[in-house]
Amino acid sequence: MRTLLLLLTVKSVFAQDAVMGAGATFPAPLYQKWIAAFESKNPGPGITYEATGSSIGVDRFLQGQLDFAASDILPDQAQLGDAQALPSVVGAVVPVYNLPGLKQDLRFSSEVLAGIFLGKISKWNDQKIKSLNRGVDLPEAAIKVVHRADGSGTTFVFSDFLSKTDAVWKSNMGAASTLIWATGEAANGNEGVAKHVTATEFSIGYVEFIYAVQQHLSFGSVRNSEGKFVRADIDSITAAAKTTPGTGNFLVTITDAPGSNAYPIASFTWLLISRTTPAAGAKRNRLMAFLEWALTTGQRQAAALGYVPLPEDLAQRERNMLSVH
What is d(CA 319, CA 321) in angstroms, rounded to the nearest whole number? Predict the structure, then answer.
């Protein structure tokens, strides 16, 4: 009986000290695998992560309902207050399309992408697309645009890139997680956009790079700040991440990053933690231990799961920051 009571007491303490997180859907599979791997080697209070979407996760975190949150949308430091945002891995957004019989990857510029998603370029054989893709047999077919219906970090990253590189897009749409679209059909989530594009000939949409790879979707290269057409892969996304300034400020976007090898629609996904709450105790210790693990062992596991790990110097700067909090 004493053993049973002791076990129940320990379980109750662990439940009270459980670390709770929620937020972005893009890194959710990685975070859940990280948590399972960490807990298997480090017994202690449980850690949970719920894929609610960036906005909901951040709102719950700011209301004190969570110990950490995750966001694909660049956090606003004024909104965060005493919270700290840490990049966890690197992501990217790619233009995906369905052109029957096409045997070559297409090239896109920000002007062409903005024109398509603003409804100003409406045919696949438009001269602006043809000039980037000489020798490609483009059909005289209407472009069927697919965009997100829900608020998402994917939309934020895509629109942030276009806002930086196309004046017409910036003045008409801007950068946001939710947009009032000028044209196209709406779908929920990366999965919804991908399914719609796959089922609709002559369509185009945008999804997370990892999702495009896993679903075997056709996606194009994009012209970067150096004028080079770059296809998203681990090397080109990492090249964009390496342009982060060597400071303690991790609230930076890496869309339209400098460098001839940098993929231009790359982005961090962030973990949000409080600098002060919880200040100490088992829950705080557990969270700090998990973050330290995520920035070391977890980074080495990221690529195997299809994610792009942080550049080592950036991860080291984050570990240094954590060591003084």
Answer: 5
DSSP for 20-47, please give it: EEEE-STTHHHHHHHHHHHHHHS-SS-E
Q: What are phi and psi of 238, to 5 degrees?
A: -65, -40
Q: Which two tokens stand for residue 181?
A: 């679209």
User: Tokens in use for 67?
Assistant: 């110990």
Residue with tokens 């296809």: 231
Q: How far is 173 from 257, CA to CA, in rounded Å?
A: 21
Residue 75 has pLDDT above 60, yes or no: yes
What distance lies between CA 228 and its chain's CA centroid? 23
Structure tokens of 169?
């897009």
For 215-248, write each residue's pLDDT tens digit.
899 999 999 999 999 999 999 999 999 988 766 6
Contact, 259 vs 226, CB < 8 A?
yes
What residue type is assigned to position 94 of the chain?
V
Q: At 268, give phi and psi (nearest 5°).
A: -80, 160
Listed residue (32, 79, 57) closest to 251, CA to CA: 79
Cα four-point dihedral sign 92, 96, 101, 105: negative
- Distance in angstroms (rounded) separating the CA atoms of residues 88 and 315: 8
The one-letter code for the residue type at 171 is S
Q: What is the pTM of this model?
A: 0.86
End-to-end CA distance of the chain: 41
Give dist(CA 212, CA 94) in Å, integer.
8
In degrees and rounded to multiples of 5, residue 272 shows phi and psi of -110, 125
From residue 164, how far is each of 19, 252, 264, 321 by CA, in Å?
38, 13, 11, 30
Nearest Cα neighbor of 71 from 91, 49, 55 is 55
Strand order in the sheet with 221-223: 107-108, 221-223, 229-230
The pLDDT value recorded for residue 4 is: 35
Ordered domains of the chain (ranges, CATH): 17-89+266-323 (3.40.190.10), 92-226 (3.40.190.10)
